[in-house]
Structure formats: C-alpha cells, structure tokens
Structures
1.
Amino acid sequence: MKNPALANRYAQTLLKFDTKGKSFENSKVLSDILQKKEISVLLKNPRISPEDKINAIIKALPYLNEHFKTFLNLIAKKKRLGILEDIVKAYIELYENKKGIKRGTLTSAIPLTDEQKNKIKQKFKNKTGMEYYFEEVLEPEIIGGLKIQIDDTAYDWTLKSQLNSLHKRFSSRAG
Amino acid sequence: MSIQIKPDEVSAILLKELQAADNTGDIQETGTVLQVGDGICRAYGLSKVMAGELVSFPDHPGLNGLVLNLESDNVGIALMGATDKIKEGDTVLRTGRIASVKVGEATNGRVLDALGNPIDGGGPIDSDLELPIEVKAPGILDRQDVCEPLYTGIKSIDAMFPIGKGQRELIIGDRKTGKTSIAVDTIINQKGKGVNCIYVGIGQKASTIAALVEKLKEFGAMEYTTIIAANASDPASMQFLAPYTGVTIGEYYRDNGKHSLLVYDDLSKQAQAYRQLSLLLRRPPGREAFPGDVFYLHSRLLERAAKMSEEKGGGSLTALPIIETQAGDISAYIPTNVISISDGQIFLETNLFNSGIRPAVNVGLSVSRVGGEAQIRATKQVAGRLKLTLGQYREMAAFSQFASDLDEATRKQLAMGERLTEILKQKELNPYPISHTIFIIFAGVNGFLDDIEMASIGKFELEFIEWVESKYPEISATTDKEEQISPETDKALKNALEEFKKIFVA
C-alpha cells in the first residue's frame, strides 16, 4: 500500500454511507477486475482522463449499483484512481472486520488437509471469536511447521526459524 | 598444546544445550517497508511498537533500526547500518527491547561501535550484564555535592578551573585549539587512580581513532579506557546514539561505587547527526535548523553525570563534553545550550594557541562552577593569588601598550604576570601531579621567578621539580598527605627554592 492512511479514509467513508452493505458485493467484483493487467495499465495511463477511465470501468461492470458508481466518480474527481485498488482492499478488510471475518496467510511446507486447516481456524476462532480465512502459501524452504500472518502479527512455528535460533544460540557461545 | 576432546562429553553438552533451547516458536509483530532512503525507513504496520524500540529486518541479518517517529499510519525508523539493500515491501520485526549495551570491567581496553559491538577484532565482550542505553538520570536524593577532585594533570586547569568527580566541564573552542588533547591528557593522568575512562568519538576520522588508541596504549592508558567510535562514515543514527552507549558503560561504574570519566568528542557533531535525522523524519526545524528537542538531547545525556551519595556507594561519573565553535562564536545555539547545562567551561582560543600559549585556555572566559568545592586547600592557597595576579596582569598589559615608561611597581607586576603565563604552559601528554603544580605556582606567585630570564622559566621549572623530588621528597609527601601548605611546608618550600636558585644556571 502506497498510502495506507489515505486509502483507509476513503474506505471508511464508503463503509459509513453504505448502510445496506451492497457496496461489499460491488467491491468484491471490482477487486477481482482490478487484478487484471489490462485494467491496471488503463488506470496508470496518463493520457486517458480520469473521467474516461471511470466510464470505461462502469461500462464494463453495468451491474454496479448507483451508490457505488457515485463513489467511483468521486474518486475520479479527486484524482485518486491511482490508489483505487488500495481503497477497495481497505474497504473489504474494514467490512469483513465489522462482520467478524479475518483474513491472513498460512504458510506451510506441504499442502495441508482440510481437517488440519479447520483445526487451525477453530483454534484461532476460540481465541478471538472471529471467523478466519487463510490464503494458503506453499513454501518448502520453511522445512516444516507453520507460519501464520494475521494483520501485523506473525505466528512463526516453522522448523526453519527454530533451526535458525538454535544456530544463533550455539554460535553466540562459540566466542 | 593439544586439547583432548571426549566425544561423549561433547554430545552431552549438545544435548543439554538443545534441551535448554526454547522451541515453542514465537509470535512477532511485523510491518512492511513503505519507503527507504537517506538512512531513514518508513514502515506500515508495527501497530504496537514503542518509541525508541529496536526493530530488525529478517531479510537482512545484522541490520537494526531505531524507531523514532510514531505516526498515525506509519512508523519512522532510523537505520543503523547499510541501507542500500532494503527495499519496499521488506518485512520489519519488533524486538520488544530498546537498544542496550554490555557493560562491566570487560569493556576496558576495547573499541566498540555505537551499539556496543566490538570493532577491534578482539572477540565478543565477556560480560553478562547488559543495560538499556536510555535511562533516567539519578534523582536528587541519590546524589551528593561534588566533593572529590579529579585531576586533569594540566597545571592551568587543576589550579584555576578545578574539576570534581561527578562534574560536567565543557571543553569548548574552535577547530585545532587542542580540545581533544586536554581530554586525552586527562585520561592519561587517571592512570593508577581507579578512574575508568570512556572516550566517545563522534563523527571523527577512523584514522584519528586508530591514532588515539595507539597513543593511549603507549601510555598504558588503554587498560582502563573504553573507546566508543561512531566514525564519520557511520550512519547519523549511530553518531546520535554513541554518547548514550558511552554513558551507559560509565554508569555501571558510577552505580557500583567506582569512578568513571567520560569524554564526548564532540557533541556538536552529535547535534548535527540528530538534526539530519530529524529533518529527514520531517520534524519541524527550529533555530539553525535544529529540532525543538536538541536541548533535551544534551541535557538528558549530561544529567547522567553525577556524584552518588554515600548510601548509593559514592561512585561518580564525570563528563567532559567537547563542543567545537565556528570562529570563536560561543553564542551560537548548541554552545549556549551546552554551556548552560554543564557546570563550567574551559574556553580555548585560536589566538592564544597560535601565540604559543598551550593549552590555549582563555582565563577570562573559562570557569568551573562547582570544582572549587572539591579543590584541596593547598591548591586554593596558591591558586587564589594566581587568578588575581593574572587578572591584574591582563588589565595592566592592555594599558602598558600605550605608556612609554612605567614605574617600578607596574613593571614588577608585568614581569610576574608574564612569568605566571609562562609557567602555565605545558607540553602535550605530560601530566603534572597536583603537588608539582602547586610547587611551581607557589614559586611563581611568591616572586621567586621574577629575576629569572623569560627564556629560562621552562628549564627552571623542570629542573627544580626534579631537584626537589630527589633532595627533599618529604615536601611533596607532606603536601599530598596534609592537602595543605602548612607554615612548615611553606618555609621548607621557600628555603628549597632559594637553595635551588643559587645552583641554577640558566
């Protein structure tokens, strides 16, 4: 995120005025679209005016509701299309937090079974009462164990870091 | 010599170590680098990080950062090491501790960087005690008045601007006026006196530090000296931190009933390093572009110098901060700040230095506000007259420039003044024990030098001290013991001077 404070401010405004929660669906769709390379190239092109860019997006996604379209137009007017992706991401996060959903990444050396994943989710749920969804990452370098990142907290239970700390422990005694 | 290694012993030790290791995994708070440049990094996340906390970069082992700014959406971090490898998106980890340094006798004889890591190739510091570098200064109840002298071994300073243990005496002057020499002479003079010395070099050339280490080794002073070096090539954050590291090492002695002497060479460079950090962190600039808290930067550092009360062990930490002025301007921002914080200053002048008066102490502008309390009676007896005579001499000398012929009394006063100025000259790395300082000033203020040629004063001084120490060693012994010039000593010293003058050939 280039400017988290700015993106958050727009996202909070959207959340505040979206009483029916319809913007969430729209944001989800938009977020997926924004991942596409063509769209990001379009948004970054300085030769296309912000109005044209937003019109193109609205045309491509005719089922966006009026409320959300107004919001997109506001962003275009304020010349903040550069951080549109961040705003949408921040909004989704805010909305989900409000609904009791947390997202994080789960790194493991081998693919985990559904049962294992459910167990992990349940453990976290028991702690905070929130629903957890993990983006799974396969990273054989960690050798074994798990690494879970939620917001700015990292739970490091990997074999790699344990070996590292052992290495540190032994080498610090070597002197 | 070969060491026998028993395999079963080794595996037993390994097993023990493995069992003791903490394998529970850990929970860390992370952040992401948003921006990096000029030794400053901004990170997103780290929502619970504390101001002044150390952070680490898992992708760059050995690199640390110091959290200086906590803002609503990001954290400003001063990097302490090579910054060229950090890139946007790198992970930052909290360490949960503020910078700390290993302290103890093991630091003696070592050269450390601003974080307390050895840089002299002598292996790790063998000490289990580690203290945080930012702590509060001792309170009022923990202290007592400065009551013991700390001799610099420099005649003019020990006589006129005495420094006491626990005092903060500023050494101020332009470049090339001998500021560092005074500090180094003082360190060398502490040999065998139970004072542990710490020299903090800030923004200096690495070659200067290397030369200093050699010099101290030559005089056997490295045994009780620790050197903290934040060289000119080190990041500004290290130069900002080095004095705090030094004072923490000194505090160990202070709090354990021992004595320590700290030299900060120099605090103007530290202020500049801090200004650089502050401006890059976009803190608002004030006078001379220094940030608003530059006074606090120095006051909290120098407040940690103290003479502890007897209940607290009676230890002390004496500070000799050094400030470099530009063209003799002591009314610039940083000099006035540090003058107001410290308990006196020794002002060195380029003119005096160039006219051969070395140490180039300006007697009029220098002062020691508390050291007089700590002076022994013997010094007070001779130095009181010295200061007065020198003051009258300076006034007279200014007037006599216009007068063509002078009366006898004036001429005599001028002659004495010239001779007193002459005896206060001293070569570098040649510390004087306090009794010798007293003898020679005694000779000067009592008029024994008035009929000696100016050119021979130095020779007289040298030979007299040598002669009196071999012929009448009891005089200096009684002076050291009684700490005063009793009528008997007074008489003996006068007799000795007269006797020596008869045999002295210029």
2.
Amino acid sequence: MKKFVMDRSGILLIFIGLVIAYELLTDVFGMLDPFLFRGLSMVIPAFGSHFDMLMKGLISSLGLLIPAYVMATFSGISLGVLIGSKKSLRKNITPFINAFSAIPAPLLTPFAIHLFPSFRSASIFIIFIGAFWPTLGTTVNAVMTIDKRYLENAATLEIGEVEKLLRVILPAASPTILSGCTIALKFSFVMLVVAEMFGATSGMGYFVQYYSDFARFDLVIAGFIFMAFILVGIMYLFDIMKVRMLRWTINN
Amino acid sequence: MLEVSVNHVSFSYDKDLILADINMKVEAGAFVCLLGQSGCGKSTFLRLLAGLERPSSGDILVDDAPVMKAGLQRGVVFQDYGLFPWMSAGENIMIALKQRFKNMSFSERKAEALKRIKDVELPESVFNKLPKELSGGMKQRCAIARAFGIDPPILLMDEPFGALDAVTRAKLQDLVFDLWKKETENRKTIFFVTHDVDEALLLATEIFVFGQSPSKIIYNYSFKGKLKSDRTTMLDDPQTMQLRNNLIKIIHDEVRTKSHNL
C-alpha cells in the first residue's frame, strides 16, 4: 500500500495543487464567477447530500456504457481485422469508414430515437457509435501494419487461419488496437452525457444535465468530479489489463 | 530424403531484376552455403526456396514437386530469430510442434519442447521466458530448437548468426553442424546464407557464390569426396586456405567489376 501511494506521489501532489488552486480562486479570493464556479465549501457538502443519487446514476450509466462499449469493441475489432487483412475490402470500404466516422455522434440522436424502439436502446446506440469508429479505425490500421515477418513466420509453420488470427494477428496488432480501445473508452464517456440527455431518468450525464438546467452548479461540479473519478478508476483497471496483455512489448 | 533442383530461376521486384537464371541441383542431406556480398540476392533466393516469394520465371523443385507456398517441409531460421515476441520461448516451440505433429497432446508437446531446449544447451527455465528476456544467442538457439523440432527435411537459414558476437557465433555454428551431422538417417538438407567465407568453409559440403545484382551463381565448389578440415585444422590446411583465398578473390573481383560498370 505504501509503495502504491509512493509510486503515485506525483499524481497526488498535482491533485492537491489543483484543489488548492481551485479553492483559492473560488472561496478564498473569489476570482472566478461565484455563480458558476462554486467553492469547495459548497461542492463537498453537495457530494454528501447527493451521494446516493450519484451512485444510482453510476449504476444506470454503466447499464448503458458497458453494453455499448462491449458491442463497439467486439464489432470494431472483428470488422477491423477482416477489413485490415483483406486489401480489396480495405480499398473499397476505407472511404466509407472515413465518411461515416466524420459524422459527430450527437447529430445522430434524432435518427437514433426514431430508429430504435426505446430511449435506452437509442442511448446505447449513440455511445456505441462514439466508441465504434475509433476501435474500427485503429484495428484496420493495426492489422494492415502488422510486421510482415510475423505473417511469414506463421506461413512457414503452416499455422491455420483461426490459430493465426488468435495467436498471431491479434497479438501482433494488440498494441495499436488497445490504444484505439482506450480512445474509444474516453469517447464513450463523452457520449454518455449526450446519450443521457434524452429519455434518461438517472445517470451520471443525466445528473450533470439535470442540475445544470436548474443552475445548481455546486451539484454540476460535484457530478463532474464524480465522473472524472469514475473514468480515472476505469482507466486504471484498463491500464492494468493493457500492461498484462502487452508485457511482451519493449517499453512495458 | 529430398533433392532440390533450381531451374533457370529469375526474380524481379517491381522492374528490378534481382536474380537472373539461377540453376542448381542439390542432393538430399547436403549442407549448402550460399555465399556472396550483402545485398546480392542470397536472401531473396532463400525466400524463393522457402516459398515466401514466387520466381518470375523458372521453377524450384523439391523431389520433382514445384515449391508453391511456404510450409513445414522447409523450415526457416531467420536472422532476426523469427520468434513471436508475445509467446514464451516454450510456446514458440510448442506452436510449431502443434502444426507438425497434429496428434501430439499438450503435455507431449511441452515435454518435446523442453527436450529441444535442452538439445540446444539452454536451461529449462528458458521455457517460460519471453524472447525479450533472452540474449540474441539464446533467441537464436530457441529458433534452432524450433526448426529442428519440426524436423523438416529441408532447413533454410538466413544469415542466422549475422547479428551475434564472435564467440556466440562460433558456438552456434558448432551446434548447428553437430545437430545436422548427428542425423545419420534422413539428414536434413540445409541451405545456409552467409557473407562470411570462413563460416561457409567450416559448415558447407557445397558452396555456391552469388554475384552482384542481378545475381547469378558465379562459382560452385563441392567438398564431396574430399577431406574437409574442421575449426581447429582449417587454418593449417593449405588446400582450405587456397580455397578461402580463391573465394575471397572471386567475391572481391565481382564487386569491383560491378562497381566499375555502374
């Protein structure tokens, strides 16, 4: 535990510095607009009074985030491997990937609400779209740029197609694929707020949006901080998994 | 026992002619060294033998069957070891064994991989190590263990010791030579690419010298029926030294002639 804290002493120091700076700019010197930037004297109690709601929001948000992200990762990687490994497919499909991935997912909200049977499924779709394109794009690129020597090595050993996919192509492409998955995870969080803007009755994004409408910026800031902590926690777990999977890379 | 014959093989990359009209016939069980300056097309020729490239014209036959694609019949040891970096040394050998011996169980494959690791004089602990945790020499030993493990009748080695220090190189030369020599029945045919004349003299039963690109075979020497000196007697043997000087002169003359023509 002591080593864990010591290894992260830099993070802790920066965090404490940010908290002190914010407190000085708000409660102490009032240099920021007090209507928008509520001091910690208001934000911390807001945490306490709305903690149950934040936790309920977390569970609700994860209910949207997890299925959307899992589907985006699975389909993005599967399609990416297929497109990345077939030159003709890549040549014909890449322009469409570029075109569709350029459409901001929030603009698809009305279409999603129209096309999907429930607000929940429409929300999942919006998050899915946010995570899908970065995963697909990086997977195509990762598979396309696999070191040719690995494939030749597999050919000389007559490794079958399925085993080649699972034991050669995916591991060889995994550093880039996992970078894409990290970007996709961050995008999913951004999309979560958009997705909870319609039809949701709870959720982390909903919480921020709801209290923003009532100008309760103490709760909005509490919501932001809560979301940031959750994202940092998830990214930490993701990084542990990534380090385990990429332990063979030189810089790990 | 597989005989290899190469008939009028040429190879172009884009529009550049790399190999021009290569012909050779190699008896089963020979240790063939392909000698020449760097960049002369020896490795390209080895890739053609491996089936990783197709000749632009001519054909390569193994026991009268044309080489169409890469496969277990022709094991390859690459200069950069060719190990999958995400697999442990043991897994690298086991995945090869799995392709070669389809009916072998997991535990049998593991036991065989451990045996092969010991055969190349590595400790058992190497089995669980990732390639990045091994030295260059250890990685190449693993690659050799894997290549001999799948027991291909033909083994293609592309400057396998080129990146190693002199002592490790000498040890691995002896290791490969001993592994090859101890197979009295069905001895492998080895094609060994090198630019080191001494390495060729030490290992080869037959030497083919490649000229500068577009490459042709400019000299061929066979030790068949002749007494071959080993590492300790090589320097004192006048015939070997004469051959050594001759090979060096041929290669230097070729480089000089081609660079004058540029």
